[in-house]
Amino acid sequence: GEVITVAELARKMNLKASEIIQKLMDLGVTATINDSLDSDTATLVAQEFNCQVTVRSLKNEVEIHETEDRPEDLKPRIPVVTIMGHVDHGKTKLLDAIRHSNVAEHESGGITQHIGAYKVKTPRGEITFLDTPGHEAFTAMRARGAHVTDIVVLVVSAVEGVMPQTIEALNHAKAAQVPIIVAVNKIDLPEASIDRVKQQLSEQGLLPEEWGGDTMYIPVSALKKIGIEELLEAILLQAEMMELKANPNKPGVGYVVESKMDIGRGAVATVIVKNGSIRIGDYFVVGTTMGRVRGMFDDTGAKVSVAYPSYPVEIMGFDAVPEAGDKFHVVESEDFAKEIVAKRLELKRIEETNRIKKIQMENAFQSL
Ligand code: GTP
Ligand code: MG
Fold first, then answer.
1. Is 106 annotated as a binding residue?
2. Which parts of the sequence belong to the Tr-type G domain (predicted)?
3. How many angstroms is it from 138 CA to the middle of ligand 2?
């Protein structure tokens, strides 16, 4: 809703109302002194004068308020683990070994080009795994993968050693402040050197436990299925130390890791639930898209009626393809969803106008 009048804003910023009105016109907004502005407009116009509107409640109009969880509402949740590393070092193969599946052999060109999301049952509990591409072109996907996860498993070929995307992946994990477990892969090959990987990564700050540091290194062969149990143990040990919790009894919040237009099913998205639960029939908002959960599916294509914290699910029922990386929010009603989307679109429009104005200005200066 409207939060501040032009007159009030002018007073707060020590400006003449006419200056604000002029600036609003530059932004494509027509207003008089007694008109009220919403928070986005107020924020934008304030920015133009190098002022910041920092009222919390204003931001929540578009950001959607999330209630703090009381400790008694928090329940243990399963870990989300993202597999990262240089191209061809064996990430997908490793997940195949863990899942007893065969994804790697059916990928086009033998490289992963999207984020795969799987929930895996192990004898000691479930784990959600995200597979990311190692090809250098997919930086954004790696960043996204590191952002939504609890733990990163960094896969490094014992034959090739540390390579550019190994370092890149490591930096994403560091930026996201996520603990890293190193899986030294391809140890079945004669040229394999586990120590060299340890040496190289020690230089990057990942000192192995056995050398007095605190990083777990697990030698594995995804091909020969060596070390898989040990890797799962290490992951679950790390997860246990983190005491991961969430409140399943509130509206779901998650992140879109993948989205696409599916012939027959319309816009679909893979969502990782961060907190709360997502249920069939829930209304939701993601960026400037919205919808109602018409169907949810796990990685085997089986129907899911409730997606609990840490679950990866494919969701059907969007009005348009949402942007990967955007936050998914269950909201109480369709009307509220529409309201949020309208505000976000308005903000986007204003930002766009602003940007075009800036470009025009720059061009004008160039032609002088
Ligand atoms: P991108 O997703 O494209 O980054 O590659 P990736 O890291 O997922 O590699 P992928 O699992 O597709 O494996 C690449 C190649 O390495 C395939 O030919 C695998 O069969 C082979 N490979 C994977 N793990 C091992 C292993 O432990 N030993 C041997 N010898 N080969 C392996
Ligand atoms: Mg792969």
1. no
2. 76-245
3. 12
